[in-house]
Amino acid sequence: MTERQKGGIVGAVERFFRLREHKTTLRTEVLGGVTTFATMAYIIVVNPAILEFAGLPVEPSTVATILVAVVGSLLMGLYANRPLAVAPYMGENAFIAFGLTALGIGWQLRLGAVFVSGLVFLVITLLRVRSWLADSISFSMKHSFAVGIGLFLAFLGLYQTSIVTTTLKSDVPVKLGNLRDTRVQLAVFGFVLTAALMCWRIKGAILLGIVITATAGYLAGVGETPKGVVALPFIGEYSLSPIAFQLDIVGVFRLSFLPILLTLFLMSFLDTLGTLVGVGAAGEMLDEHGNFPQIERPMLVDACSCVFSALVGSSTSGAYIESAAGVREGARTGLAAVTTALLFAVALFFIPLVQPLQHLSYAYGPALIAVGVMMLGAVTRIDFNDLTEAVPAFITLAMIVFTYNIGNGLTAGLILYPLLKVAAGRGRELNAGSVLLGLACLVYYVFGLPH
């Protein structure tokens, strides 16, 4: 390929993704996409491990997980032109696997519920109801989503690295981890290193921190050697046939199944909204009203990904909050999402090689903490002088962290917001969307399956 041809391809890519308009470069976008992949690659192993409890075989589930990430992220990059990677949601997968166990329903019916909720997303997105609801949320509440998610990511990183751990024999729910553990020491080193690199404004600081910490772990003897390198997808033990298109849709349309659909619908809607606002705030992509421009595009991708996920045999999917890591590296366009998608596509042929990533939390965990720190800046945009704004905002971020569930925090805040406005005699400040959201969240707690 000649230099002129290379220049033509680069120019075409820059024009398609409008890199200059977004004040970014090809190198920055690729770096952001690689960083996002590095921080969320754990889903390749974790999602199948969780869904195994619902009865889905691990090997086909692994392929399905990666396939959802590839297709969803490609759609997000090529159609929505946003630096948001897509994959099966953590939280919703646990609800599918554990939350529905007591009901005694098979995984086929559970996937049917995912499919139907995805279709509902698709319809209300096309009708622009989702974007209308998103725009109806107050400026302070939107930024409380970003702060709460930042704290959630930081706590997730602290917990996954065992810097903070749980205790079963004490009234204290969490405690300091074992600082003499080599993995914990590596995680502390990784966070300090990443923070220092960020202070020096070094491009790729987060990814560089992950790579250096992972390398140090292998040198310290705590890295796991892969059991293999290459495995062909879609054949043999990695065939999708045991789970693809095996969902039970007819069984979903029973009155007794309504709480499950309500739970999946509301949690997925709010997780997507929280991710878009949180990542948008981190990358300064929100407008002057705190709205995410052209929000219906990523929401449409989210809905299509959810439907596709159910068809191939995985749980509810959508935009991933770990995309904030790539955004912090400067990613601003869909080229970053396409880069992440291509890396997942490559991983499809190297599943045995990437499986040890599950045990490298000491390397990617510090990145989540660092991103969480950077997202806390949105707290300055919450109106603490107005208690009708400050109290719901505080409850939102507190419930996100202390229930370890983004959806719980968002629903609690959205219920309290209209209640407090009315109680303070300021009901006229409410719009129809905020009241409707509050009622929907209240219905979830009364008739749904909070988890």
What composes the largest sheet? 2 strands, antiparallel
Sheet with most strands: strand arrangement: 1-4
Shape call? globular
Helices, by number, come to 19
Report the order of strands and helices: HHHHEHHHHEEHHHHEHHHHHHH
What is the percent of helical residues?
Answer: 55-70%
Q: How far apart, in Å, are the first and last alpha carbons?
A: 55 Å
Number of strands: 4
Summarize model confidence as the mean pLDDT: 88
- Give Rg in angstroms: 21 Å
SSE inventory with pairings:
Elements: H1 3-17, H2 26-40, H3 43-51, H4 58-80, E1 86-88, H5 92-99, H6 107-126, H7 129-135, H8 139-160, E2 164-166, E3 174-176, H9 182-199, H10 205-219, H11 258-282, H12 296-312, E4 317-319, H13 323-328, H14 334-347, H15 351-354, H16 361-375, H17 387-402, H18 406-423, H19 432-447
Provide a quick synopsis of the model.
63% of the residues lie in helices and 3% in strands. By secondary structure, the chain is mainly α.
Structure description:
This protein has 451 residues and is mainly α. 63% of the residues lie in helices and 3% in strands. It contains 19 helices and four strands. It has helices at 3-17, 26-40, 43-51, 58-80, 92-99, 107-126, 129-135, 139-160, 182-199, 205-219, 258-282, 296-312, 323-328, 334-347, 351-354, 361-375, 387-402, 406-423, 432-447, and strands at residues 86-88, 164-166, 174-176, 317-319. A two-stranded antiparallel sheet has the order 1-4. Strands 2-3 form a two-stranded antiparallel ribbon. A hairpin with a 7-residue loop joins strand 2 (164-166) and strand 3. The chain is globular. The termini are far apart. The relative contact order is 0.21.
